[in-house]
Amino acid sequence: MIENIEIAKQLDEVGDLLEIQEANPFRVRAYRNAVRTITELATPLERMVADEEDLTALPGIGKELSRHITELVTTGEMGVLAELREDVPSTLVQIMRLPGVGPKSARKLWHELGVETVEELKSAAEEGRVSELKGFGEKKQALILSGIEQFHRHSARYRLDEADRFAAPLLEYLSALGEAEKVEVAGSYRRRCETVGDIDILVLSSAPEPVMERFVSYPSVEKVLAAGGTRGSVVLRSGLQVDLRVVPAESYGAALVYFTGSKEHNIRLRKRALDRGLTVSEYGVFELLETPEPEAKPAEAEAESEDAAPRRAGRQVAGRTEKEVYGAVELPYIIPELREARGEIAAAEAGELPDLVNLDDLRGDLQMHSTWSDGKNSIEEMLDGCVERGYEYFAITDHSKALAMIEGLDEEGLQRQFGEIEELSGRHPEIRILRSMEVDILADGTLDLADEMLEALDLVVISIHSMFSLPAARQTERVLKALQHPAADVLAHPTARLINKREPVDFDLEQVIACAAENRVALELNANPHRLDLKDTQLMLAKSLGAKVVISTDAHRVADLALMPYGVEQARRAWLEKGDVLNAFPREDFLDYFGIE
Asked: Would you say domain 4-154 falls under CATH 1.20.58.100?
């Protein structure tokens, strides 16, 4: 099975290699546009190819790209990429992304110095050979060496919770400065993407010098990369790069929109502005003083231009607030989580933006562990944590016996746990404790608990904890069999991925989701930031196929109950509303849905 993200990655590499070859820029752009479409696509292309759907109906997918995608899905290889790799070393792609090195420079380094890898470039630069090339020099060579150092430190992206931990104290530190009127993180962090590559901070201030001085003096700064009048960049000891922009009041909202992104969302905003005789940039929304001549770039190309400074602009009409910016192009405010060019602008124009689920909507948590298996707190302590959050119900889901290394429960142990739950329930009528278990899906698709005990549970949560590398067909068959067990209620962390550590299991996700919907098995959105499983695009697919979702923390201690916001943010990125999330249902409605007495 090949996922959309893998297809997009290979097409992106084709675009990169074509760019190094100095191919026709329109051909390169075609691949870039295709990557954007595929990245945003909820339906697996593999399924579309199997069903012989017309891929050219997708935006940006022409006949040539359709052939390439079909070839990759059906054979596992893409001929055009294989041919390009014979002509151009694929490792040059990493080189062209270093600061000071673009496609032309990468080509020059390869042709004139024989450099093909980052390490070879490092050696050439340390020996002074790069500076001897025409168009490079000592300054650019030093920039390249600095970039290589950062490349090794920043090759991995940071999980959102890691970024939170790095950003929070820095924001507090900057906000303590009197000249900093507002301090906000932008970029993918503000859109609450599951991982971030760096942090972008905007500061509203009329006195940029003291702001910049305080920024570069932050105690956790390891290296200052730049410190200009209104722009600065540092590397923290953690290796995370942080970029700062100091912005005046009249541009603050426009800068927030611009630096929050996504790039594709901003392109669509700029196109919409151009259609209305306006130009949008990080500086504000301005009236255009002139109409482009016929031979000038079309509106689409103009909108995609990164050089967005208002050189042909007249009077500023908006920019102080984000709401003002969207209003100038005749749209309501669009929250950052939705700014991924997945139809949010069309929905906003039609007045059909979703009423997204909120943290306050949740009435319970449906996966957590206690000292009965691998949890760190007792059931009563977990109960107190849930009561503190105002929950109406929660499920204790200690592991089944297949996970012997963490002392999973057998039938006898589960019966004894029932006794403790009954006793606690008698003392705490304000909250419903659901008798549950996280039951392992065994290699053959059967469940790791006798049927009579499954029937005794209020909620049966099933999951994969082993045999991750089964072939896709067997893995799919395994999960489908488990979903069709009449006792199954929730499929926990469905793909079993661990962000930056373990790849998702290989199975036919669309078939699994369809089976879950058909059998009224909810799909868990695991809120633990190490997992965030399912992904946002997968959740969008689940919603489109009629599957319900539960958001659970998978808490192993009371403190983990506080991870729920990460799950809610992921749900919001997936356009999920209150009615899509079962544990947003009031207690009686929730119990009725699952047939719990």
From this structure: no
**Which 3 state secondary structure label does DSSP give 276?**
coil
DSSP string, 67-130: HHHHHHHHHS--HHHHHHHHHS-TTHHHHHTSTT--HHHHHHHHHHH---SHHHHHHHHHTTTT
- For the segment 430-454, what is each residue's pLDDT rounded down to a tens digit? 999 999 999 999 999 999 999 999 9
Q: Give the CATH number of domain 359-594.
A: 3.20.20.140
In contact, 116 and 108? CB cutoff 8 Å = no
| pTM: predicted TM-score of the whole model, two decimal places | 0.76
CATH superfamily of 158-247: Beta Polymerase, domain 2 (3.30.460.10)
pLDDT (tens digit per residue) in 247-306: 999 999 999 999 999 999 999 999 999 999 999 999 999 999 865 554 455 555 556 655
Q: Is the pLDDT of residue 91 over 90?
A: no
Residue 416 has pLDDT above 90, yes or no: yes
What does each C-alpha distance from 304 to 32, 287, 296 come to in angstroms? 12, 18, 14
**The two structure tokens encoding residue 353:** 């933006």
Residue 60 phi, psi (nearest 5): 80, 5
Q: The tokens of 581 are what?
A: 């999330």
| Sign of the CA dihedral with 119 first, then 122, 124, and 127 last | negative
What confidence score (pLDDT) does residue 220 get? 85
Q: Which CATH superfamily is domain 251-349 in?
A: DNA polymerase, thumb domain (3.30.210.10)
- How confident is the model over 148-190, as pLDDT tens digits? 876 765 566 889 998 998 899 899 999 999 999 999 999 999 9
Going from N- to C-terminal start, the domains of the chain cover: 4-154, 158-247, 251-349, 359-594
Mapped onto helix, strand or coil, the DSSP state of residue 335 is coil
Spell out where 254-358 has E strands: 278-281, 284-288, 313-318
